[in-house]
Amino acid sequence: MIVAKDNAPHLTPDEYFAWEEQQLEKHEYINGEVYAMTGGSVNHSRIAIRFTTMFDTHLDASSCITGNSDLRVNIVGTNNYTYPDASVTCNDRDKTTTQYITYPCLIVEVLSASTEAYDRGGKFRMYRQNPALIDYLLVSSTSIEIDLYHKNDAGDWLIINYKAGDAIELKSINLNFSIEQVYRGLTLTPETPTDIIRE
Predict the structure, then answer these.
(1) CA nearest 17: which of 102, 89, 107, 98?
(2) How far from each other are the two terminal CA atoms of the chain, in whole angstroms?
(3) pLDDT tens digits, residue range 64-81?
(4) Rounded (10°) CA dihedral 26, 28, 34, 35
(5) Residue 174 and residue 84: Cα distance in Å, rounded?
(6) What is the pLDDT of residues 52-68, one digit of tens each?
(7) How many angstroms separate the Cα of 64 from the Cα of each of 30, 40, 88?
């Protein structure tokens, strides 16, 4: 998704929830400011659906919850809320909330040229505040490339770069799959300047 700062007034968290219910589009909420989530490309949408379908099928017999881009994630210890493209939580604390989850073990962001730096930088720093997060997956929508940020048993974050022909392992949900499974049937072309919506 592409994020653009909205012209809404500075809101409290409760005001944000009430205000967003009246809006036609989703908004992330960071430090009292709201940011509109504008539409992504066809590939962006298809890739996100591939992940949510794959996760939901894999976890069908478990008590874990798979979320799509409509499920908010609350940043631990803050009143900030984001909308990742896909997420999975297996934490019992997330079964008591109805408008968001807080402790996902897995988050997926499908990259756009206008948001890649934020997804790799500031957004990842926020997500890392969650002690339950194990896997953070950044997925290209223009080439067969996926980067996995994985937290090992020592608490260190490792970066694993996947390309065509690779098999991806998500230890957070005990899932292995080929990278081609994500990109099957897609026409991959680099984004041009006219495809990019800037803030």
Answers:
(1) 98
(2) 13
(3) 999 999 999 999 999 999
(4) -80
(5) 20
(6) 999 999 999 999 999 99
(7) 27, 27, 7
